[in-house]
């Protein structure tokens, strides 16, 4: 009698556990099927809801019959049934979006920092690059970064994280070994710094500032948004550089249209998984203009600056020790800049601003997030840049950290690193005076000290190709 009772209890426990696991797998399967269907078809919500109810009822009947069939064969068959369920195992949400073939190729952008998150993928073949004429000017770049908190890893399908459970299938282990981020089969360009993203090349620099408030939202990821817009924007600039340009028929790119395209591609890339976020954007593209001097045609550098939000592009002329150009901040209200992304009314075609700036060889171009300009006034930025340049010119072989030496031009790396350090010193000082504190007081808000934020700087020196 006691043995029969024990067997009955054991069978009851096995049945309960079996139905619990069966229900869990069934719910995961239903969710995955629903997401697959919703990503394939954009149909009326009511009609799709009725199709889902019918589909779910059919699967419920099938799963119930299978469960009863398994129960009739005793506890041993129940255990086997849990291991070999008719439903596919629940996996990462990215399984329904198989990763495309990757076009890695060797990194060919000189100015981009070679760190784990600094990834660049050429969009053109080496043959087409070799055929492109060498531009008369280029930007020698350096990057400086400070994050108030470590960056969050990118979610699937932009990465393929390793299995997090013994019950998950291990068939994607070959993708999990590559922790770099991909979109549409390409390495995501640039660097992530907290919620910021930066990019540097010989013809284009960019600094995007992701709005950190999205970090508390379940589907929020501002760092992903800032990086994706930067990636697609840089890709559009690279394509634009392939357009022929001459003195008689100069090519002038539509920078706002390129940013609009990047914005729309980011919307498409994040729509399926509903990853939410917003970001500001500022970037500068190096072009060439022509001046007639008698019978000669002298090319001169031209900077095309595009801005949306409260980041800033600043041009400093060291020989005159002054700022010759800087972008104006765009706000909805205090501490709420214009931004691209989820639920934001702002778009590049409606709100972005573009400027053309005449450059000289030797000018310094800075692309900065608000972590710099909220903590340093303009004259402090100029003094810091000039001091860093002077110090580097006196001792160009000065030993610096390895990551700074590898990030591009050593002088510009020193400028960017020193500027970030100066801004960081104010940001962490609760008693310092800062531009952010000044603006808050003007708005009638009590504020003291600097503003702790992600600080990102891309410094570029305009030089002549020889």
UniProtKB/TrEMBL annotation:
The Gene Ontology terms for molecular function here are: metal ion binding; protein serine/threonine phosphatase activity
Residue ranges for the region (Disordered) are: 151-178, 392-411
Asked if the Swiss-Prot or TrEMBL record annotates the protein with the keyword Magnesium, the reply is yes
Which of the seven top EC classes does this enzyme belong to? hydrolase
Q: Which Gene3D superfamilies match?
A: PPM-type phosphatase domain
Catalysed reactions, semicolon-separated: O-phospho-L-seryl-[protein] + H2O = L-seryl-[protein] + phosphate; O-phospho-L-threonyl-[protein] + H2O = L-threonyl-[protein] + phosphate
InterPro entries linked: PPM-type-like_dom_sf, PPTC7
Instruction: Give the top-rank taxon of the lineage listed in the UniProt record for this protein.
Output: Eukaryota
Q: Which EC number(s) does the record attach to this protein?
A: 3.1.3.16
Instruction: Provide this UniProt record's keywords sorted from A to Z.
Output: Hydrolase, Magnesium, Manganese, Metal-binding, Protein phosphatase
**Cofactor entry:** Mn(2+); Mg(2+)
Q: Which family does it belong to?
A: Belongs to the PP2C family.
Recorded protein name is Protein phosphatase
């Amino acid at each position: 009698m006691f043995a029969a009772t024990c067997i009955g209890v054991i069978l009851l426990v096995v049945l309960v556990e079996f139905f619990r696991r069966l229900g869990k797998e069934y719910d995961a399967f239903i969710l995955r099927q629903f997401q697959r269907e919703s990503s394939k078809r954009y149909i009326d919500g009511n009609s799709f809801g009725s199709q889902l109810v019918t589909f779910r009822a059919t699967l419920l009947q099938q799963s119930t019959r299978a469960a009863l069939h398994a129960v009739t064969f005793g506890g041993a068959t129940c255990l086997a049934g849990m291991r070999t369920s008719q439903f596919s195992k629940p996996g990462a949400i990215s399984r329904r979006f198989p990763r495309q073939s990757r076009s890695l190729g060797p990194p060919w952008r000189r100015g981009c920092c070679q760190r784990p998150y600094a990834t660049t993928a050429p969009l053109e073949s080496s043959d087409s690059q070799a055929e492109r004429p060498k531009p008369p000017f280029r930007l020698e770049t350096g990057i400086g970064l400070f994050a108030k908190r470590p960056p969050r890893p990118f979610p699937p399908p932009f990465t393929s994280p390793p299995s997090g459970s013994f019950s998950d299938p291990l068939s994607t282990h070959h993708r999990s070994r590559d922790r770099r981020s991909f979109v549409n089969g390409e390495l995501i360009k640039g660097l992530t710094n907290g919620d910021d993203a930066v990019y540097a090349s010989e013809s284009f620099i960019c600094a995007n500032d992701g709005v950190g408030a999205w970090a508390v939202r379940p589907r929020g990821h501002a760092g992903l948004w800032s990086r994706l817009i930067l990636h697609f924007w840089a890709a559009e600039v690279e394509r634009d550089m392939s357009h022929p340009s001459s003195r008689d028929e100069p090519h002038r790119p539509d920078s706002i249209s390129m940013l609009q395209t990047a914005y729309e591609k980011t919307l498409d890339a994040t729509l399926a998984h509903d990853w939410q976020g917003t970001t500001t954007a500022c970037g500068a593209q190096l072009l060439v203009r022509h001046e007639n001097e008698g019978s000669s045609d002298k090319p001169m550098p031209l900077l095309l600056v595009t801005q949306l939000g409260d980041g800033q592009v600043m041009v400093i002329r060291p020989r005159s020790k002054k700022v010759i150009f800087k972008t104006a901040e765009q706000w909805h209200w205090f501490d709420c800049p214009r931004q691209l992304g989820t639920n934001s009314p702002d778009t590049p075609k409606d709100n972005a601003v573009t400027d053309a700036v005449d450059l000289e060889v030797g000018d310094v171009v800075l692309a900065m997030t608000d972590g710099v300009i909220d903590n340093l006034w303009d004259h402090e930025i100029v003094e810091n840049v000039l001091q860093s340049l002077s110090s580097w010119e006196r001792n160009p072989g000065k030993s610096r950290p390895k990551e700074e030496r590898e990030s591009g031009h050593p002088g510009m790396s020193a400028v960017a690193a020193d500027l970030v350090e100066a801004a960081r010193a104010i940001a962490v000082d609760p008693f310092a005076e800062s531009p952010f504190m000044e603006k808050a007081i003007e708005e009638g808000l009590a504020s003291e000290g600097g503003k702790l934020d992600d600080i990102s700087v891309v410094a570029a020196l305009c030089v002549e190709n020889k």
